[in-house]
Structure to design on (99 residues):
């Protein structure tokens, strides 16, 4: 069944699809901000904690800095997995309705 874009946009399925996309985006963005600003605030207010040695050549601050970068990668991977397994399939289904 071929439908117009206006008809598809007004369906409950499409509205739920858009809401789910924004929910996932906001959650991942919020987590990234918590990780990043948590590190920044720890740098600002927890200098003694971050200065503690871990091993011979590094300290907690370096370890946390690396964890911030790794955390960003992990959140990106989570988004990619979600997009490939759920989002892209739903987009294809909606595209098929337009043909």
């Amino acid at each position: 069944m071929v439908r117009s874009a206006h008809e598809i946009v007004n369906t409950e399925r499409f509205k739920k699809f858009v809401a789910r996309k924004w929910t996932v985006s906001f959650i991942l963005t919020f987590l990234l901000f918590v990780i990043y600003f948590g590190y920044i605030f720890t740098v600002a207010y927890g200098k003694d904690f971050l200065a503690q040695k871990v091993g011979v050549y590094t300290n907690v601050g370096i370890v946390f800095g690396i964890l911030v970068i790794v955390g960003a990668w992990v959140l990106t991977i989570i988004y990619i997995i979600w997009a490939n397994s759920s989002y892209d399939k739903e987009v294809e289904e909606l595209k098929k309705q337009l043909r």
